[in-house]
Design brief:
Blueprint: E1 13-19, H1 30-47, E2 50-57, E3 60-66, H2 72-91, E4 103-107, H3 109-126, H4 141-144, H5 156-165, H6 171-176, H7 181-188, E5 197-198, H8 201-205, H9 220-231, H10 235-238, H11 245-260, H12 266-273, H13 277-290
Helix pairs in contact: 1-2, 9-11, 11-12, 11-13
Domain Chromosomal replication initiator DnaA C-terminal: 219-287
Protein name: Transposase IS200-like domain-containing protein
InterPro entries: DnaA_C, Transposase_17, Transposase_17_sf, Trp_repressor/repl_initiator
Length: 335
Amino acid sequence: MSRRQRLHVAGGTYYVVQHGNTHHPIFSQPEDYALFERLLATGLRRTNARVHGYCWTPQAIHLILQIDEISVGRIMQGLTSRYARSMHRRIGESGHFFRQRYKAVLIDPKHYLLKLLHYLHHIPVLGGLAEHSGAAEHTSHGTYLRQSATPWLTTRTALRLLELKDGGTEYEAFMARCPEPEDVVQFERVGSNDLRVIGSTEFLENLPRNSRTYRSKASLDQIIHTVTCRMGVERDLVLSNSRQREFTLVRALIAWYATERGVATLSEVARCLRRDPSTLSMAISRYRTRRPELFKITAMHDISPLVPIGGSVKVHYWDGAAEARDGDDEDRQAI
């Protein structure tokens, strides 16, 4: 079976989880953590990526990684392969040092960065490794408190968000609260299933088009039926040769929803509507400017929900937005 594709969004922020195997921990000595962080810092410089938060446990790596152009896959492969080689030389073993591949989920930083950071700093507490977040050694919590210095860690983004969200609430007071149970469940799912995106509907709609290729249960016929009913026009008139403006708008909507959801190509829609593809394309461009509220993937609620197809990746949006598949195959070449 081929590997599932990864969702790559340049400039995106990801929650990345990498587990060790069952034979030995990832970190067993203090110098292991130091080695890993040196390799991470080198990788960040090479790829122009940033880390907004982290938590290292003996059996798992958790980090909030914001990439530039280089994919998460290339960054993680370079990092984990170098670390594994160093550890194998030290312990005199070979084989797989890590269990399977890393897990990664694209997050909406505006709505979820603080929640994720809160969760990461409480992982040792939730796992029984520390009594409170301040007692955990290997997280970014101390740097956020300015108790330690981590040159490769970016703290200003989260601190700025905290200031905007909580009206100037101090970081320490924010962290004193336990994570919300639903947030814990939400982020724990990242390492156990095919969750690919955590974000708002607005975040989904603003993703680059090639990162949100949809597939829907709906047929082209259902889309035509739904759009004509919602717009209050007769189906037969939309399929006729009439050039009335209201029908032109409806045809543009049908073409946009069908192509955006992966139900049909523009040429297929054009044949069904008895129109030229270029005419439909121009109508879509014109009416997306004039009536932007109609050209949103969630505007027509009567159309069947989006679902994954074949061997593609499931993209789940936690606030009820669409499931989708991504079409970007990650470049697996190590940095």
